[in-house]
Amino acid sequence: MKELLITQPDFMETFSCVGSACREHCCHGQNVTLDRNRYQKYIKSPYSEIKRIAVTQISVTQASLASWANINPDSEGNCPFLDEQRLCQIYKHAGVNALSNRCATYPRIEHIYKNQKIKSMSLSCPEVTRQVLFSTDALTLRFSTIDQYDYYKAADIVAEERLANRACAAIAANPQPNIEENLWTINRFLQDYQRCNDVGKIKMVEIDGLRTGLISAMVAGKAARALMTVEPDPVIRGELLDCLRRFMTNLPDIRGKKRLSVYTNTLLSYFINGQAERYQAKQLLTDAWCEYALPFFSQHTSILRNYFLYRIHHNQLAMADALPATASFNLYVIDYFYLKALISAHANKNQQLTEVDVINIIYSYHACSESIDSTSQQFKQALMDLALRADFPLLSLLA
User: Fold this and answer.
1) Which residues have CB under 8 Å from 274's CB, separation 6+?
2) What is the C-alpha to C-alpha distance for residues 81 and 87, in angstroms, rounded to an integer?
3) Side-chain-side CA neighbours of residue 2 (13 Å)
4) In terms of domains, do 207 and 282 share one?
5) What SS3 state is found at 35?
6) What local confidence, expressed as pLDDT, does residue 150 receive?
7) Which end of the chain is less packed: N or C, by CB atoms within 10 Å?
8) Four-residue CA torsion sign, 76, 81, 87, 88
9) Are 336 and 369 in a shared domain?
10) Would you call 73 helix, strand, or coil by DSSP?
11) Residue 194 contacts by C-beta under 8 Å, 6 or more apart in sequence?
């Protein structure tokens, strides 16, 4: 028997689906794929309503055994198997084993390595977003072991990469007056880490030394002083806002789109005129962030810190990534730029910021940007192209 390590954050222990009370049901705006066995079970179901819906609402593609058919949403964009209480008839009558793979696992996600499994959940779920942002211990990692006959059929975890990931988490977890100081320090750590790795395989003791040295420097005020000298770059901000405008214009009616549109329309309405007006809009949003958002976040100190702790854990920063760690982190900061702009615009319009607003903005942004829809994939690729630029001005987005 082999012993395998299971790692999961604390919020997964406390998470519970709220079902029909969810502010945006995960059975809305989704195209669900069925394998052949599940499709056969549905059309031969002893429950007449399940059988009727399967015959009329499932289209057979026969693309492969694993992708045999698709469940088509109804006229309102909902899964046709939902009953009047917005509960799943498949789950109610046939159990979890009869669900599609996505329906059975969402919002859970697993990263599999040879001798361990690292678990997480998607922020596209509103309840996950609430738990992650508003629970102080949400990103405390819990460890357990299981015994099974063999290791997972996956690559072994690279100890140095895992240590670099945990170093970034340690930097993010260190309380500073502004989260931007933590982000400046993580960026510096990743640059030094990547530079050492380019020369030769970095040693674990060197990673520990980088982490402790940079945290000490951050606590001493080095990051804060460095950020005071950074000027905002209007060019990259304009490019990012144009990307967002194209994305929302072309995005079909997928889950999260309706809610995100309310916030993006507010934000983009400030940037419809020329360069001078854009500068004024930027200042307006900066003032709104200081007047409404910062007091809110000072009362809820876990939100921004937990968001980045989540991203470091969930996206496995510096671990088995197709992108350089610095480029991956650039993407996190791009997302933060968007979220900060959306929050500021909404706060400026409504002269306040609430818990509901923050949850709605963050979950709907992630639901849309992480969708498998082709428009979402194009948006992600456009941001990736920006993040991979050698001269990407990350620090200017923190100014």
Assistant:
1) none
2) 8
3) 12
4) no
5) coil
6) 86
7) N
8) negative
9) yes
10) coil
11) 324, 325, 326
Please tell me whether residues 224 and 253 are part of one structural domain: no
The confidence score (pLDDT) of residue 200 equals 65
> What is the domain range of residue 223?
158-229
Instruction: Give the number of other Cβ atoms within 10 Å of residue 171's Cβ.
Output: 27
Residue 292 CB neighbour total at 10 angstroms: 20
Furthest-apart CA pair in the chain: how many Å? 69
Q: What are the helix (H) ranges across the chain? A: 10-14, 36-43, 48-57, 89-94, 101-105, 126-134, 159-173, 179-199, 204-219, 222-228, 234-250, 257-268, 275-288, 294-299, 302-314, 325-350, 355-369, 374-387, 394-398
Instruction: Specify the residue for token string 């942004």.
Output: 365
7 secondary structure, DSSP code: E
pLDDT recorded at residue 277: 61
Q: Contact 142/187 with Cβ under 8 angstroms? A: no
- Please give the average pLDDT of every successive group of 10 residues along the chain, which has 399 residues: 92 88 82 88 89 89 90 85 85 86 90 94 96 96 91 90 96 96 98 81 87 97 96 91 96 93 95 65 90 96 97 94 91 98 96 97 97 94 96 93
Provide DSSP, 227-240: HHTPPP-HHHHHHH
Contact assessment for residue 190 and residue 312, using Cβ atoms and an 8 Å cutoff = no
Neighbours of 390 (CB within 10 A): 5
Q: Which residues on neighbouring strands pair with residue 146, listed in sequence order? A: 4
> Where are the strands (E) in 49-161, listed by range?
58-60, 69-71, 108-113, 116-121, 141-148
Residue 199's pLDDT is 62
pLDDT of residue 275: 54
Phi, psi of 117 (to 5 degrees): -125, 130
Residues 268 and 192 in one domain: no
Instruction: List the beta bridge partners of residue 69.
Output: 34, 60
Instruction: Identify whether residues 201 and 290 lie together within a single domain.
Output: no
According to DSSP, the residues that pair with 116 across neighbouring strands are 5, 113
Does 42 fall in a domain?
Answer: yes
**Structure tokens belonging to residue 68:** 């045999």
- The overall pTM is greater than 0.90: yes
Distance of CA 374 to the CA centre of its chain: 18
Q: How far apart are CA 319 and CA 245, in angstroms?
A: 32
Report helix, strand or coil for 302.
helix
Tell me: do 355 and 243 sit in the same domain: yes
Q: 391 in helix, strand or coil? A: coil
- 368 lies in the same domain as 280: yes
Residue 342 lies in a domain: yes
End-to-end CA distance of the chain: 53
